[in-house]
């Protein structure tokens, strides 16, 4: 069922090196590199996501107020009533 | 070579090939966790549902009180019920995120896997709809009445089909008993579809966020992704328990605490949150048949995704216009969900109609156009083979 290890791909001239998990710090540079990287990824996406959702939220707030306004009578229409 | 049972036993080797020695791309992100979470949620729903079914009576005179008895008198019945109701919400949350992953990373290019997935979504929606009717509360009864009545819009056969589905002239005992039977049966159809979904997926192997062939860098599913999925499962279980233990009625409707009464119509009939987007699309068209067709089309349009794909680059990772449209679609979906829960008053009517229109415009027109434009903007050096 599907490609198995040994039949996935034929590659040449690729050498990989790795350290044993017992010879390295488990969370090396988790904060010192990880947090700046998180900021980099955030900056790359925020202008594509943020403005849209801010506009959507503004629409949501406006719609609630508008519905409330439309349910009420306009006081200005009754200002000259005795 | 030593004899390895997991590779030679006829049954165990199936499990081995799917969950242990399965070659998996090393770079699949958290968005790939939702598949296993959906399987886990299905299992939770089947188990909790089975225990609830032991105490449920599917008669219209007994259903509501049997659920009340289960919650109050059965040992941990309240917990089993809360897990089941909130598990359904979690099921839909995961499936929406799973589909979102599929749209962003163009997983729909695995056509067989994708099509079975859409069928599973339809099965899930049918199961959840029928399950909500079982407690026989006000919203159960009236939600069933509204939605089943929609089928009367079908030309020629509509007025005949609806009483046939009801088992009588209205939603009544016969409807409840057959919905109980179907609600028990369909999850097993879902389970069978899940196995088929996985068989097709494993023929080619998982996609990955880069969109290029990962065959040169694959790692075994166990222990890397068993562990990663275990973490996802722990987080999902925590969310389910927070809902079930602290906020069990957060996502529900207060009307369903009242037993069904065919003589009293609730002021605001609406489905559970996961159906609200479809409800908004349904109500956006003044014509009954038009609304029904639009509602079904909003799900069935997913079958068209492979045909609408025009970009040479596979995922949206390097396609900014498509990304913008994807997030616009997500926002549109959220707006539709919000509007579906609101009464049909201005300005919600116009917002709902606009959002419904944009839902189809984004999927059918803007996203394919963006793909074509992006092809012209960038000359890719590697084209992913289909």
TrEMBL record, chain A:
GO cellular component terms attached to this protein's record: mitochondrial inner membrane; respiratory chain complex III
UniProt keyword list: Electron transport, Membrane, Mitochondrion, Mitochondrion inner membrane, Respiratory chain, Transmembrane, Transmembrane helix, Transport
Membrane-protein topology: Single-pass membrane protein
One BP term from GO: mitochondrial electron transport, ubiquinol to cytochrome c
Localization terms from the record: Mitochondrion inner membrane
Residues in the signal sequence: none
Top-rank taxon: Eukaryota
TM annotation in the entry: 46-64
Transmembrane helix among keywords: yes
Main location: mitochondrion
SUPFAM superfamilies given in the database record: Ubiquinone-binding protein QP-C of cytochrome bc1 complex (Ubiquinol-cytochrome c reductase) (SSF81508)
UniProt family annotation: Belongs to the UQCRQ/QCR8 family.
Cited function: Component of the ubiquinol-cytochrome c oxidoreductase, a multisubunit transmembrane complex that is part of the mitochondrial electron transport chain which drives oxidative phosphorylation. The complex plays an important role in the uptake of multiple carbon sources present in different host niches.
Subunit structure: Component of the ubiquinol-cytochrome c oxidoreductase (cytochrome b-c1 complex, complex III, CIII), a multisubunit enzyme composed of 11 subunits. The complex is composed of 3 respiratory subunits cytochrome b, cytochrome c1 and Rieske protein UQCRFS1, 2 core protein subunits UQCRC1/QCR1 and UQCRC2/QCR2, and 6 low-molecular weight protein subunits UQCRH/QCR6, UQCRB/QCR7, UQCRQ/QCR8, UQCR10/QCR9, UQCR11/QCR10 and subunit 9, the cleavage product of Rieske protein UQCRFS1.
Protein name, entry field: Cytochrome b-c1 complex subunit 8
Record organism: Alligator mississippiensis
Gene it is expressed from: UQCRQ
Automatic annotation (TrEMBL), chain B:
Entry keywords, A to Z: Electron transport, Heme, Iron, Membrane, Metal-binding, Mitochondrion, Mitochondrion inner membrane, Respiratory chain, Transmembrane, Transmembrane helix, Transport, Ubiquinone
Topology term for the membrane: Multi-pass membrane protein
Residues in the signal sequence: none
Cofactor(s) the record lists: heme b; heme
Cited Pfam families: Cytochrom_B_C, Cytochrome_B
CDD domains in the cross-refs: cytochrome_b_C, Cytochrome_b_N
Chain sites annotated for binding a ubiquinone: 202
Domain named Cytochrome b/b6 N-terminal region profile: residues: 1-210
GO CC, one annotated term: respiratory chain complex III
Any single biological process term in GO: mitochondrial electron transport, ubiquinol to cytochrome c
Domain of life: Eukaryota
Transmembrane segments: 31-54, 75-100, 112-134, 141-166, 181-201, 230-251, 292-311, 323-341, 347-367
Co-factor note (free text): Binds 2 heme groups non-covalently.
Gene3D superfamilies associated with the record: Cytochrome Bc1 Complex, Chain C
Residues reported to bind heme b b566: 98, 197
All copies of domain Cytochrome b/b6 C-terminal region profile, residue ranges: 211-381
Keyword Nuclease: no
GO molecular function: metal ion binding; oxidoreductase activity; quinol-cytochrome-c reductase activity
Subcellular location: Mitochondrion inner membrane
Ligand binding (heme b b562): 84, 183
Job description of the protein: Component of the ubiquinol-cytochrome c reductase complex (complex III or cytochrome b-c1 complex) that is part of the mitochondrial respiratory chain. The b-c1 complex mediates electron transfer from ubiquinol to cytochrome c. Contributes to the generation of a proton gradient across the mitochondrial membrane that is then used for ATP synthesis.
Family: Belongs to the cytochrome b family.
PANTHER family noted in UniProt: CYTOCHROME B
Name listed for the protein in its UniProt record: Cytochrome b
């Amino acid at each position: 069922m599907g490609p198995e290890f040994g039949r996935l791909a034929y590659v040449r001239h690729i050498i990989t090196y790795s350290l044993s998990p017992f010879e390295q710090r488990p969370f090396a540079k988790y904060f010192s590199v990880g947090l700046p990287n998180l900021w980099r990824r955030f900056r790359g996406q925020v202008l594509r996501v943020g403005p849209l959702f801010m506009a959507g939220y503004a629409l949501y707030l406006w719609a609630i107020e508008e519905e409330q306004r439309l349910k009420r009578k306009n006081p200005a229409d009754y200002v000259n009533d005795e | 070579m030593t004899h390895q049972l997991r590779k030679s036993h006829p049954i165990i080797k199936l499990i081995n090939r799917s969950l242990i020695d399965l070659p998996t791309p090393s770079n699949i992100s958290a968005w790939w966790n939702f598949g296993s979470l959906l399987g886990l949620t299905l299992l939770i729903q089947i188990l909790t549902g089975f225990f609830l079914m032991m105490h449920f009576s599917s008669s219209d005179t007994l259903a509501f009180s049997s659920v009340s008895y289960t919650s109050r008198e059965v040992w941990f019945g309240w917990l089993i019920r809360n897990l089941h109701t909130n598990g359904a919400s979690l099921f839909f949350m995961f499936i929406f995120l799973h589909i979102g992953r599929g749209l962003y990373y163009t997983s729909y290019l695995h056509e067989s896997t994708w099509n079975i997935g859409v069928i599973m979504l339809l099965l899930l929606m049918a199961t959840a709809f029928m399950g909500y009717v079982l407690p026989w509360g006000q919203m159960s009864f009236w939600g069933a009445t509204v939605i089943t009545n929609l089928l009367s819009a079908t030309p020629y056969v509509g007025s005949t089909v609806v009483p046939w589905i009801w088992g009588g002239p209205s939603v009544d005992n016969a409807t409840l008993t057959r919905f109980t039977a179907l609600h028990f049966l369909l999850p097993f159809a879902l389970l069978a579809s899940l196995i088929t979904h996985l068989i097709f997926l494993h023929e080619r192997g998982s996609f990955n966020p880069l969109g290029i062939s990962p065959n040169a860098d694959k790692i075994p599913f166990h222990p890397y992704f068993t562990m990663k999925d275990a973490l996802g499962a722990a987080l999902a279980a925590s969310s389910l328990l927070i809902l079930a233990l602290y906020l069990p009625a957060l996502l529900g409707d207060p009307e369903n605490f009242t037993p069904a009464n065919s003589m009293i119509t609730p002021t605001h009939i609406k489905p559970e949150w996961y159906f609200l987007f479809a409800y908004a699309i349904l109500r956006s068209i003044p014509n009954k048949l038009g609304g029904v067709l639009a509602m079904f089309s909003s799900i069935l349009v997913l079958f068209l995704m492979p045909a609408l794909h025009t970009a040479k680059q596979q995922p949206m990772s390097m396609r900014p216009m498509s990304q913008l449209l994807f997030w616009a679609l997500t926002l549109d979906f959220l707006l539709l969900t919000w509007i579906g829960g609101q009464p049909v008053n201005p300005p919600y009517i116009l917002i709902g109609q606009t959002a419904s229109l944009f839902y189809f415009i984004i999927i059918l027109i803007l996203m394919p156009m963006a793909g074509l434009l992006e092809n012209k903007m960038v000359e890719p050096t590697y084209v992913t083979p289909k």
